[in-house]
Structures are given as C-alpha cells and as structure tokens.
Amino acid sequence: MLQSKQFNKKTRQGRVQKQVREVYLRDDIYCGAKSCKACDSSSACLASSIILVVDTNVVLNQIDLLENPAIDDIVVLTVVLDEVKNKNLSVYNRIRALCSNSFRKFFVFANEFHKDTYVKAVGGESPNDRNDRAIRVATRWYQSHLGGETRVLLLTNDRENKRKAIEDGISAETIESYVKSMGQPDLLDLLVQPASEDVTMDDVEDLRPSKRKTLYTEHKPMSEITSGLLRGIYHQGKLRVNRYNPFEAYVGSESIGDEIIIYGRGNMNRAFDGDIVAVELLPQDQWHEEKSLSIADEEDEEEDDVHLVPNSADDAPRTTDLGNGSAGDTNSVSSRPTGRVVGVIKRNWHSYCGSLEPMTKPAGSGSVAHALFVSKDRRIPKIRIQTRQLENLLDKRIIVAVDSWDRQSRYPSGHYVRIIGEIGDRDTESEVVLIENDINSRPFSAQVLACLPPLPWLVSSEDLANPIRQDLRHLRVCSVDPPGCKDIDDALHCMALPNGNFEVGVHIADVTNFVHPGTPLDDEASQRGTSVYLVERRIDMLPKPLTEDICSLRADVERLAFSVIWEMTPHAEIISTRYTKSVIKSCAALSYIEAQARMDDSRLVDPLTTDLRNMNTLAKIMRQRRIERGALTLASAEVKFQIDTETHDPLDIGMYQIREANQMVEEFMLAANVSVAEQILKHFPPCSLLRRHPTPTREMLEPLLRTAAAVGLNLDVSSSKALADSLDQAVGDDPYFNKLIRILATRCMTQAVYFCSGDLSPPEFHHYGLASPLYTHFTSPIRRYADVIVHRLLAASLGICKLPPVFQDRSQLTNVADNLNYRHRNAQMASRASVELHTLIYFRKRPTDTEARIVKIRSNGFIVFVPKYGIEGPVYLSTRGEKGGGEWFADEQQQKIRKMDNSLSYSVLQTVCILMEVVEPQPNRPKLQLSLI
C-alpha cells in the first residue's frame, strides 16, 4: 500500500522546502517478541514478560540509563530514531550501537512502514505532536498484537503524552516510576536530574527560588541572540577554557577578527569548555588591566579571577601544572578585548571523569546523598550529584554527566553514570585518559571482524595475475621502523640504474584492498580516524589481523602494496614518477638503531647496506633542498619510556633520540606524500583530501620573539625561510641552546589540518612547516583513515577503480575531514596524557635532583623545561598569597626576575637545579612538583 508523506526540509541556504515522498506500507514487519504467535520469532530478541516502548525524550535524556545492562527488552521505533538523529547525533550513534549489540535486547520496529502503525499528520498538528501520536499508536498496536500474555509499557516523561496514552487505554509510566518499580535503587543514580525551574516543590523542598540567591545572569533568548549577532552587538564563537587556569577563557570571534578574553566564572555565565556561545564585549575601560602574569596554583580552585595566565594555544605542550607559552601570551594584554557570555547557542556537555570530593562516609546506605564531583580536567567546574551509593564511590574514579545548570546554583547538576575503577590504579587512570579524549577502545564488533579475510592469508595467484598489480618481488625492499614495530605500513627500495641514476621506491601497505567503502569495517575505521599510541599500549584503527599480519609489510613474506617509484639523479632530482599497485617481498624489517648501525659500520658492504647508504645520501640532499626552500627544522620534547613487561610500570624515562636513519625514512615519506598530493589534485580538483599548515601570525610568534630578544637574538619571522635561517644561526656556547629555541618555536605553531580541496583556494593549501604548496597523507593507511581516503583517490586517478559516493558530496567529505582533525587531535592529547600519567608513576617513589632550563618568567616564579626527561612545569619563588610576588620583581619584557635587594636573579634560558617529586596538594589530584634546590 502506498502513502504520501510530507515534511519540511531546511536547505543549506536556510530556505524551507516542502518534501513529498511515497511510503510503501507493509503488513509483514515482525514485532521482535519471542512470545508472538503471529510473527516469525527466529530472529526475535524481546524475551521478557514486559516490553518497553521508549519515546524520543527518554532516549535523548536517559541514554546513560538505557546503556545499563539492567535495562532491556526495549522497542525503539523508527519515528524515535529519526527524531533523535535530527536532534543529537551523538545520542543517535549510542542508541544505534545498543540496537546492533547482540548481547542487548533492543529491537528496532519500523512503525513508519507498517500499515497498522503509520500515521498521517493532521492539519494544525505540529511535527512533535504527530510523532508523539505515532508512538502511542505503535504502543497500542503492540498491546493488541501481543494480547494479554506480554505487558507493553510506554515510558515517557512528557506529561501530556502520558495523559493521552492512559486515556487511549495504553499502559504508560515515567522513567523514574518504572526504575523505582524495578527494586534496584542504584539505577536511580543514572536518571537525569531536571533543571530546578522544572522541578515541582513536591519533588524537592529546598529549591524554592525565593530562598536562593541568583548567582548568574539569565541567558538571552535565541531570538534576541540572533538579532544581536546580525546587528554586531553580540559575537559568536567556541569557548575555550584555559587548560591551566579554569577562571579564564577565550572565544575566537570572526566578527571582530580577534580572540575575546572572558575572565571569571561570572562572565563565563555557566558556559562549558567547547560550548558555542554568544559574547557581549565589555566597555573598553573594563578591558583587562595590564599586570604581571603569575602561575595559577592548584589550590586556587575555588577562587574566582585569581592569577591570570593568558594562554590561547589550545594545543599546549605537556606540563606538570600550568603556565606554558602561547599565542595569547603577550605583554600588551591591555589592548585585547574582554567580554561576557550572554547565551549558549550549542552545548558541549558530555561525560566527565573524576572523583567525588572527599567527605566522611555515611553511616547508613541506600539513602540519597548529595556530593560534589571533581573532574580530572581542571577546566570543568565541580558538578553536584545525588547518589544512593556514596560509600561505594568515594575511593573510585567515576563518570558523571551534566544535566543542567541553574542560575541560582554555584555548580551545575548532573548524575552518576558508572565506576571506572580504583583511584590511583594504573589501568583505571589509563582508562580515564581514553574516556576524557573520546577514544574508542572497545573491541571490534562481530560485523567488523566478519569483513576480514580468513587467516592465514597469502598472496594468491589471482593477485599476481591481476593486470593492475605489478610484481615487484624481485626488488630488494626493506622497512625501517621503531624497535618492536608490528604494524609496518611502509618499506623502501633503492636500485642503481645503468645510466647512473637511481630507482627509489616507497611501498605502502595496500589497505584498501581489504577495507572496502561502505562496509562495517570501513565505517568503524572512518569513525576511529587514527590509531592511538599510549605509553603502554596501542589502540588500533583497524583490527589486529590486518594491522599486524595481512597488511603489515613484514620481512620474508609476500604482501600487497601501493608503490610510488621515482627515477632520481645522484643529486636527488626527480626525473620521473610512477604509481602502481604491487606485490613485494621485504628482505628485512630493520629498527632505526639496526639501520643506523649498518650505515655506520664501514666493514659492511653487502647490497642491503649499500642501498641504505645510497638512500641516506639522497635523503640528505633532499632534506637540505627542503630547508633551503624554507622548511622548518623544529624540535619537540618527545619522551621514551622503558616499560616492565610484567607489571607495565615505567622502569626508565628519557628524551627520544633521533638518528639519521629516522630522518632518511622521513624524507622519502614526505616526498611520497607530496607526489601523491600533486597526482590526486590534478585529477580531482574539487574533492581531494589534502593537509595544510596555516602560517602563524605575528601575535602567535610573540612569545618566541620576546624570549629570543631577552637573550640577544633577533629572529626574522617574515617567512618560514627567514625563520628557518634565524633558527640555524641561534647558537650559543650551550650545546642544548639551539634545540631549546626550536622547541619554543614549535609551541607557537598552529595545528596542521586535513581539508577538502574544494573548500579553499590554492594559496590556502600551503604547508608552512614543510614549505610545500601541496601536501597530503598517503604513507600510513594502517594507522590513519586519511591515508585510506587518499589511496582511493590515487587508485581512481590511475583508472584502477571508481571514486566512492562520498567524493560526490563535498559537505560529507568536509565532515569526514573535520572528524579526522578531531580524532587526530584527541589521539595527540591522549598520548600526552598517557606520558603525564606514567611520568607521575615513575617519579612517585623516585624524588630526583636534575638540571632544568628556564623558558618563561612569571611574577611569582618561572616555567622550566627539564631536558633529560622532556618535562615542563612551574617553579614558585614566592609563597602563595604574597601580593605582587612578595620580595621578587619580574620584568617579563626582559624575561628576568630578581630579588628586590638585587642579591639574586634569574633570566630566561638559564640553567637551574631543581628537585622533582610527586605531591598531592588536593585529594586525588597528584602532580609533579618542581622546586629549586
């Protein structure tokens, strides 16, 4: 039976269009109940005597409860799924995951396609009312369809929907009422707490507005915000709370072309980090007065407008506490606009990891207790929760979600979600790192694993006979990777040609031969975006059979590859480039140390060692040419841990050593990425996935310039070439001086990002750090989804396959690029947090004296960098509470701090001796403290 379905759709230009679709209605859609006599129950999953039908608001607001294993036998209607998808994509993905989980009893019923449950919109009826009516009709159908053997219950917190359901003879309850009837009081902790304005006085006696002081100004209504944005009164942007001072935030505003600084929780007006907000500029005479910046202390947690530490670089380096340099860290802060939040346009609330504020354990159990939750992330305010299991939670890391923030409450309200584990346990704290950075570490689903070829996998005769694939097994190919690397996705070969030139090949694992567009495996890889490398483990983007076996270019096994092959002169000039799918057989899987040892040992003259030396010679020329073009040679404080294989605790810690072998591999990977970028852009100008590195502004480089000037250096930052030359000339008597300057330069850079070529103009494609007009990622498809996309583009440019549908939809491709940037950044932050965690574990029982370098001066101390361990943190000179730094005077322009009597002074880049030890100034928040010896 055919029915016409009408609905309104808003276009990207903001116009509303009426859409009409034909709906084919069926009578053979199963109900999913095992007890049903009328339907085929072979694939039914609903087995209880009570079946629950949930409405849209229950799914949107109570998803944490629905994810608890105690809640099962749920019918999710397609009308509910569609509405949830339109309102909250994150919750939609979570409910879809529940519906596809074979261990849970969630059944999707296509009520919009069943002839007995489809409902037409009635004139004057809102879409919301029509959807509520459709939910009631489907629930009533279930009741009559299943008869009296199975109870069907509609769960809704909408009073009107519940009233109409009961009038229609439908069993309906609120979610809270149903949970109470289950006899599991702990489940009540998972319920979302309503905002106080929505709570009746019967529910909570002590929330009468008349008895409570208003702490925050009321948010403006959206109509007023929209009007204010159009008239330039308000400015829209994402709020970013300073990672090292929770009472200071920034809103990047395109409308004024600058960052607006928000000081104090009052001016933040209940906005969270990541919220899209509307900001009103304060009068210019209220803009932040110029004052010496100081280092915020852990104990300042509850003080508003304490130490001000402007730090707009969200991609801040790893520190033990606060105060690293950034784009916003300039001396002339008085000229920067200051504002206040007048409304929240889009919330960024999610689940947070932390612990409850210590308190005496309650004598009884089961009664409702109020507690304050303290997030591990200092940017998040404390959250007030109610719990019936306080005694069990006090020594645990837990997850809490935010429900509301009333303007009469100092803290937001939320609810308990689940326990992670014991506070201080390494596995628990590692899990916190993953959750805080939204890293999916769940095992791959059966649907994903079903996409893999069976093991053992071997190159087949069909692969060898395939005309698109060249047999390169005769080449002397080898890989060079970190020690113990199992997911080997790149290998090299270098062969001398009769004409005196060299054939050099970069061979990359042919991942797209196994990961096909639109499959569960591809969808999962697309969502994960990248593999995540923690100190003690790796969270894979693809299942291990692919990453460590089928795709990994291991030694002495035949593997499928995608190859970029150049003919190069002895001066590393590229004569020709060709691209081909291939079959290779690596003759050696070397570590960087092994490759370096071979090249350095003059007694070795075997063919493989000769190949390595030839590649290294070419790479040095290529590297020098890149530097002459303006590519930056930056440095980072990369740390390497030696981990106990049994306990997984760190045994040793030190800076990661870069060898010539590392640089050799890097050079050829960069060259392959550039060659592939040129090839795909030539064939697909509107839909290529590229990578750009925006040029840093003068303001962003200001901290570097000020530090350099303080030690007598004049850095030219007019171009990447000028900066590169200046950094090369920045040498002193101290052998570590130049590396330190390069590390400081790295801190001033913006993040490189993926983008769709159709979204920007060619001049914006430029990669500043590499001084390259074009760049992409092709060389690591095992661990980066961006490279998988680029492999598909390259294959299509060679006529090997057609472009998948995603490349026809630029907005969808832009969304993919945005997700890749989000996942890439989160992976970086998780890696840093893992290093911080293991640094704390290492030094917990090892107080250590060591040398450090001062990298930034503050009014109450300075920030130091510890070269031996790659650690950065604050050293306090004046005690907490001393006004103006006590007996110390700081000259931040000259980057010096001295005692008032001139008996002692410190300057930037000076070497000092410090004691490193783990302390816990606040319960459950250990930190590495650095003190002057």
TrEMBL record:
GO terms for molecular function: 3'-5'-RNA exonuclease activity; endonuclease activity; RNA binding. Residues 50-163 form the PIN domain. Keywords: Exonuclease, Exosome, Hydrolase, Magnesium, Nuclease, Nucleus, RNA-binding, rRNA processing. Gene3D superfamilies: 2.40.50.690, 2.40.50.700, 5'-nuclease (3.40.50.1010), Nucleic acid-binding proteins (2.40.50.140). It is found in: Nucleus. It comes from the Eukaryota. Residues 469-800 form the RNB domain. Its cofactor is Mg(2+). Residues 321-337 have a biased composition (Polar residues). One of its GO terms (cellular component) is cytoplasmic exosome (RNase complex). One of its GO terms (biological process) is rRNA processing. Residues 295-337 are annotated as: Disordered. Residues 296-305 have a biased composition (Acidic residues). Belongs to the RNR ribonuclease family. This is RNB domain-containing protein/PIN_4 domain-containing protein.
